[in-house]
Specification:
This protein is of the alpha/beta class. Helices cover about 60% and strands about 15% of the residues. The chain is rod-shaped and about 195 Å long.
């Protein structure tokens, strides 16, 4: 893919026509002392060009475009495999992309562009790859291996690793392995929050002891329930038994009263009248008292009356005794009958239970089983968790070995890669140590390779920028994608001394000439003048003057890229 032209549907816009080889957009200030304050363009619009290219090539929505440039349509013409294509996007309807005149949603357009850029199936996205050849933000010029805006290390490695020709399967597998490990740790965290699991995790209880006890209790309850006989009229029988019990107690009290009556009657029957007439006479004679015949006759009559009275009382007592004995016998028979009935009821109640009692036992069994299941689940999950962690650790080791094998087998191509970087950096710094390190990262993290571009730093300005240029150019030279252009903003050249800038354009010119690439760069006029002071006129004309495709000025709004004065902050 090479860029052909960037246009807008507004006449004020300065069309940018790209060419093969070097493409320079110069920013010219009327008053050189003016300083850009960091916003995307309070100057002439150099940095805006990179944002516009990303915008046309399916970046995320750019809100300042919609706010400051409503209803502007930008169109980028580019070539791919010898065929010209166009892609258009309107600032007020940024979700719609027109690729070769066909309307597409943003996601679909990105997939189309990705299919143009890479030939094989890879876990990549178009925008991060584009950022590797067109650094867009100020922050993307801080480090050579992070071309996106605040990327994570894995994404940076995945994209740069692909463009370097490294094995992306190894990169993805380690990342997935680490993600699986992280998920297991999240599971562990959830374990610790569970009320029951937490109890075991914190060591307050022993899961195996609780499990054994619950299993014993469950078996006991199961046996009890298997032998349990449910009585549907349990409570009626229980009530009848209570009534019989009450009747028995009343009978027992009645029997006790009757037995006491019988005892008293027997005692009364045993009482005899021992005062006879002869004894009375004997008593009087002993006292030398003479008793008349009349008195003796009266005494005999009294004795007879008394004997009759005793006989009548005994007759009545015997009758009363018989009546009590009969009543006692009857009540004893009733008591015996009630006792038998009571025994039957108690036997039934002892072998049967109420339905709610059976339900309560069942509920207790269910509760025990639920807790047992929870403990078993804890043990099983803990075991699986621990086994999986061991598997992952082993898998990390296996992946490390696979990576070591890969690096050994790929050493010839990796050596050629390192040689390219080394040769480029030596053109800038012949006396500085430099090199490209590609090593196996054996840590339990998501980074498969340690890729480090080095230039020995003696605190000279521009070392980091040279490192970025050489690294980006190396990505392009590997030809792992169909990108055939490299874009750098003027930020890259700002800190370089004139010799480094001059070398950069020479290197870029030679590479573009040899491989048919495009190198697109924006630069301030003062920085370009420093290059002119180093290059001879013929070389300057060939590389710089012939490579300059557009000059933007700040003398008026019409001389700026958009042809109008607009202030936007595109760094957010």
């Amino acid at each position: 893919m090479q860029l052909i032209k960037l246009i807008a549907d507004k006449e004020s816009f300065h069309t940018i026509s790209f060419q093969k080889g070097i493409n320079i957009i110069v920013g010219k200030k009327t008053n050189p002392s003016n300083k850009v304050d960091g916003k995307t363009f309070n100057g002439v619009g150099k940095s805006l060009i990179v944002h516009l290219l990303h915008f046309c090539l399916c970046s995320n929505k750019i809100d300042p475009f919609e706010e400051k440039l409503p209803k502007w349509t930008f169109t980028l013409f580019f070539s791919h495999n010898g065929k010209e294509h166009s892609i258009s996007r309107n600032t007020s309807s940024q979700g719609d992309i027109y690729l070769d005149g066909e309307k597409k949603k943003l996601k679909d357009a990105r997939n189309c562009l990705l299919n143009m850029i890479i030939n094989d199936d890879h876990p990549l996205s178009f925008q991060p790859l584009l950022s590797c050849v067109a650094r867009r933000y100020r922050s993307s010029y801080n480090r050579y291996n992070q071309s996106s805006n605040y990327p994570d290390d894995y994404s940076a490695l995945l994209n740069t690793g692909f463009l370097l020709g490294l094995n992306t399967d190894l990169i993805v597998r380690k990342k997935n392995l680490r993600a699986e490990q992280d998920n297991l740790k999240k599971t562990e965290s959830l374990f610790k929050k569970d009320p029951i699991f937490k109890e075991y995790y914190c060591g307050n209880s022993d899961a195996q002891l609780d499990k054994d006890e619950l299993e014993f209790e469950i078996e006991r309850l199961k046996k009890e329930l298997s032998e349990f006989k449910v009585s549907n009229n349990y409570h009626e029988i229980e009530r009848e038994a209570n009534e019989i019990s009450f009747s028995k107690k009343k009978l027992e009290n009645d029997i006790a009263v009757i037995e006491n009556n019988i005892k008293n009657i027997n005692s009364a029957l045993n009482i005899q009248a021992d005062l006879s007439v002869a004894r009375v006479v004997q008593m009087y004679e002993s006292a030398t008292i003479e008793i008349s015949d009349l008195l003796k006759k009266t005494l005999n009559e009294v004795e007879e009356f008394h004997q009759n009275l005793i006989h009548s009382r005994n007759t009545r007592l015997k009758s009363e005794l018989k009546r009590n004995e009969d009543e006692l016998r009857k009540k004893a028979e009733i008591l015996e009958s009630l006792g038998k009935k009571m025994d039957q009821l108690l036997t039934y109640l002892n072998t049967h239970g109420a339905l709610e009692e059976y339900s309560a036992l069942n509920q207790q069994l269910t509760d025990y089983q639920l807790r047992l299941n929870h403990i078993q689940e804890y043990q099983n999950m803990l075991k699986a968790f621990q086994n999986k962690l061991k598997e992952i650790k082993n898998q990390f080791i296996l992946e490390d070995k696979s990576t070591d094998t890969y690096l050994e087998e790929a050493e010839p191509s990796l050596k050629a890669l390192r040689q390219k970087y080394y040769e480029m950096t030596k053109l800038f710094y012949p006396k500085k140590k430099s090199g490209l390190l590609i090593e196996n990262n054996t840590g339990e993290n998501q980074i498969r390779f340690n890729v480090e571009a080095r230039i020995e730093d003696d605190s000279s300005d521009g070392v980091n920028e040279v490192k970025i240029f050489c690294f980006d150019m190396l990505l392009l030279l590997q030809k792992m994608s169909n990108f055939e252009f490299l874009i750098h903003d003027s930020r890259l050249l700002a800190n370089m001394d004139p010799r480094q800038r001059t070398t950069l354009y020479r290197v870029a010119y030679d590479i573009c000439k040899d491989f048919g690439f495009q190198y697109i760069t924006t630069i301030n006029e003062d920085a370009l003048n420093s290059v002119q002071a180093v290059m001879d006129q013929e070389e300057y004309h060939e590389i710089i003057e012939n490579g300059t495709i557009l000059t933007l000025k700040d003398d008026s709004a019409s001389s700026k890229l958009l042809g109008i004065q607009v202030d936007m902050d595109l760094e957010k």
